[in-house]
Amino acid sequence: MTDARESAGPNGPTPARHAPGTPCWVSLMVHGPAATQEFYGALFGWEFQPGPQQLGPYVRALLDGHEVAGIGRLPPDRHLPIAWTPYFASENVDLTAETVRSCGGTIGVGPLDAADAGRLAIGSDPSGAVFGVWQAAAHLGTSVSGVPGTPAWNELLTFESATVAKFYRTVFGFQEEPVVSADFDYVTLNLGGAPVVGIHGLGQALPRDRGPHWVTYFQVADVDDALDSLVHLGGQVLKPVHDTAHGRVAAVADPEGARFALLQRRG
Q1: Residue 208 binned pLDDT confidence (cut-offs 50, 70, 90)
Q2: What is the arrangement of strands in the sheet containing 47-50, beginning at the earlier edge strand?
Q3: Is the pLDDT of residue 236 over 50?
Q4: To 10 degrees, what angle do helices 223-232 and 33-44 make?
């Protein structure tokens, strides 16, 4: 992973509308939203308030009064993975959905209005990884980052980076910045010279039971303490803490199996 841009902190100015292509929200659809809220509330200090109900029961997670993420009940007729799904900002979700289809992706949900909050679509890239598209109206998306309990980065784990990077570049206008390495397949996607997401090609090391998928990194103050809490709350450690150039990272899963990562930044 690499660093992403950070918006205003909890006591900073009101965040501006997210630029097109920017990850602007993360959402999790589960079978038991009440238990999931308890888990993440205890882990990250989130509180919850009702959100749009177009896809069923849905709440927004708040950190010190600022919206950071969403949790909803998985509709029984939607065959979606239990996974954190990043949403990318769009000025015209219908046009973006058309581009997704023309570039070999699929749209499984929408485009549809989420009350007065905005308009959304949920699709998948040519490798099958699920992502969302958000056209903001009253709800701009995640309103705080750079502090514990907030999304810090999104990374796509897939078979190889080149083909899928071209897809996201065409759909969202990213610029590619590949890592020059014979044994490390990684591309950072930038907007305006700033990194926004990463694509990690794992080849045959990609988990066969999961397939290509996005992983959201959540910032924590102390990753060891966060792991202790996670295990106590019924979560699972998938990859122990390891040092990276950007901080200490651990790959984990919540009690329903949704995978995510914990990040303790350096300094």
Answers
A1: confident
A2: 47-50, 58-63, 66-73, 23-30, 84-89, 130-136, 118-124, 106-114
A3: yes
A4: 150
Query: 88 with 133: CB under 8 angstroms?
Result: yes
Q: 70, 72, 207, 232: which is closest to 151 by C-alpha?
A: 70
- Between strands 23-30 and 66-73, the pairing is parallel
As a whole-number percent, the residues of the chain with pLDDT over 70 amount to 93
Is residue 72 a contact partner of residue 56, using CB atoms and an 8 Å limit?
Answer: yes
- Sequence-distant (6+) residues with CB within 8 A of 16 are none
Q: How far is CA 51 from CA 41, 60, 136, in A?
A: 16, 6, 14
Phi, psi of 50 (to 5 degrees): -60, 145
- Beta strands 213-219 and 259-265, pairing class: parallel
pTM for the whole structure: 0.92
| Burial classification of residue 153, based on how many CB atoms lie within 10 Å of its CB (0-12 exposed, 13-18 middle, 19 or more buried) | buried
pLDDT at 173: 97
Average pLDDT, integer, range 161-177: 97
